């Protein structure tokens, strides 16, 4: 795999944007000591715009850094769960590069995120709080997916016009 400067710069940019999107808007979810944020929108947009590698890096590292900076206990789980969310979203859209594929990719990514945290939270806090958190994570994922859909269209258009992404 040849990694050029433009791609490396975009990966770094989306890692930072995911971290900031996670930190800027934080709505606490007291039952599991988690929080809702906008990081999913950025990492899913990265996956749609840059593919599986961009989704993996933005999701895993950007979200992990946000958790580390805030001392959040979920940081190691976040690295895996958010990385998978971005990676799977990216793979789906690479294989189905259509409007329907874009919708399916962000929806599946959101479900992967909610399910990953649900599995961990069953162990950490028990089934009932984990189930409530699952619903909150699905809501966050749905909002992030909708925003990512819109954001990715604008990003692709802008990055293509600046010759940062190849033309279709």
TrEMBL record:
Q: From what organism does this protein derive? A: Peptococcus niger
Q: Which Gene3D superfamilies match?
A: 1.10.1760.20
GO CC terms, sorted: membrane
Q: Give a yes or no for keyword Nucleotidyltransferase in this entry.
A: no
Q: Name one Pfam family in it.
A: ECF-ribofla_trS
Its transmembrane ranges are 12-29, 41-66, 72-93, 105-128, 134-155
Q: What is this protein called?
A: Uncharacterized membrane protein
State the UniProt keywords alphabetically.
Membrane, Transmembrane, Transmembrane helix
């Amino acid at each position: 795999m040849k990694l050029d400067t433009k791609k490396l710069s975009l990966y770094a940019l989306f890692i930072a944007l995911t971290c900031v999107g996670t930190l800027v808007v934080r709505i606490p979810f007291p039952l599991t000591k988690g929080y809702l944020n906008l990081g999913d929108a950025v990492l899913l947009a990265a996956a749609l715009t840059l593919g599986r590698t961009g989704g993996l890096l933005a999701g895993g590292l950007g979200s992990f850094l946000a958790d580390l900076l805030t001392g959040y206990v979920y940081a190691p789980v976040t690295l895996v769960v958010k990385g998978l969310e971005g990676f799977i979203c990216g793979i789906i859209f690479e294989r189905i590069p259509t409007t329907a594929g874009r919708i399916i990719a962000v929806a599946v990514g959101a479900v992967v995120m909610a399910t990953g945290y649900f599995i961990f939270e069953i162990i950490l806090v028990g089934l009932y709080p984990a189930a409530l958190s699952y619903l909150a994570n699905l809501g966050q994922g749905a909002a992030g997916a909708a925003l990512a859909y819109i954001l990715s269209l604008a990003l692709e258009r802008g990055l293509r016009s600046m010759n940062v992404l190849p033309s279709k």
